[in-house]
């Protein structure tokens, strides 16, 4: 099953940001990725593509596995978002 690995990140006070998240650090095998038709090319900029992947996984009747937050704890590396990578305002309608 696809795995959402980064369930506890310092930036989010080591709590799952929301139940339908499938971002930051995740993994799946090639067969699963192919079955889900990969990531959409419709998302420009930051945000949206991870939520879309969550929905693809759900609609394919796959279960997302998550390790316990006591094990999957991460510290986010500081990085600047490029100005061209602003959230796509159409991401919710996609």
UniProtKB/TrEMBL annotation:
Keywords: Transferase. InterPro entries: Galactosyl_T, Galactosyl_T_C, Nucleotide-diphossugar_trans. The keyword Transferase applies. One of its GO terms (molecular function) is galactosyltransferase activity. One of its GO terms (biological process) is carbohydrate metabolic process. Transmembrane segments: none annotated. GO terms for cellular component: Golgi apparatus. Gene3D superfamilies: Spore Coat Polysaccharide Biosynthesis Protein SpsA, Chain A. Residues 3-80 form the Galactosyltransferase C-terminal domain. This is Galactosyltransferase C-terminal domain-containing protein. It comes from Oikopleura dioica (Tunicate).
